[in-house]
Amino acid sequence: MDSTSQDLQRKPLQVTDLEIVEMEGEDIDEVLDIENLCFKSPWTRDAFEQELAIEWSKVFVAKKPTSHKKRIVGYICLWVVTNEVHILNLATHPNFHRHGIATSLLIFGINFSTRVGAEVATLEVRKSNLPAISLYKKFAFEAMGVRRRYYSDNYEDAIVMYSKLTA
Ligand SMILES: CC(C)(COP(=O)(O)OP(=O)(O)OC[C@H]1O[C@@H](n2cnc3c(N)ncnc32)[C@H](O)[C@@H]1OP(=O)(O)O)[C@@H](O)C(=O)NCCC(=O)NCCS
Fold first, then answer.
1. SS3 98
2. Which residue range(s) make up the domain with 63?
């Protein structure tokens, strides 16, 4: 990774009172709280620790100031490989749904990815996850296929979505 992309990932994005920065080890407890609230089969601590160790993986957290500290309210995990970014995980704390946090994380994640060379974005989403599908459609993601019985907890199908990115 060159110095420009290193600068980019260190530079926080300030959206009103929301700050988006790269996740650090000390953030994992708060991220896990949200993960456990949001998913039937949540990622484990090991999974997040592994993401921190993978060179091409980026996890960005959205922080909101409260009276005594900055609280993590959402996160996004991306893999940028050659010209493609794959969105592996995205969640917002249920107390902050519909506040534009996932939108801010996607804007930040996609901007970061295009700056480091991504031209297309892909992701998988549960067929029943209409809030997430609606969100991705706002970012011009289109369904390009189905992975049958993809999720091992209930064998639900995954919709594979694709978006051509513009810098
Ligand atoms: C999907 C999720 C990430 C959206 O987060 P959010 O911060 O509430 O999203 P935003 O406030 O940025 O909403 C942006 C758009 O998403 C869509 N959306 C979000 N929540 C929705 C809901 N409950 N029903 C329908 N559409 C919804 C809408 O299009 C919304 O735009 P609008 O508010 O102008 O109508 C959040 O509901 C979540 O964490 N869900 C559990 C985890 C998950 O499913 N992650 C995605 C895995 S693929």
1. coil
2. 3-164
The CATH code of the domain that includes 115 is 3.40.630.30
Binned average pLDDT, 10 residues per bin, the chain of 167 residues = 50 73 98 97 98 97 91 98 97 96 97 97 98 98 98 96 91
Residue ranges around ligand 1 (CB below 6 Å): 38, 90-92, 97-103, 125, 129-132, 134-135, 138
Position in ligand 1 atom list of the atom nearest CA 98: 11
Is residue 55 flagged as an active site residue? no
Residue with tokens 């991306």: 78
Is 67 exposed, middle or buried (CB count within 10 Å of its CB: 0-12, 13-18, 19+)? exposed
Q: Whose CA is nearest to atom 35 of ligand 1?
A: 98
Question: What is the structure's pLDDT at 3?
Answer: 47
Active site annotation includes 136: yes
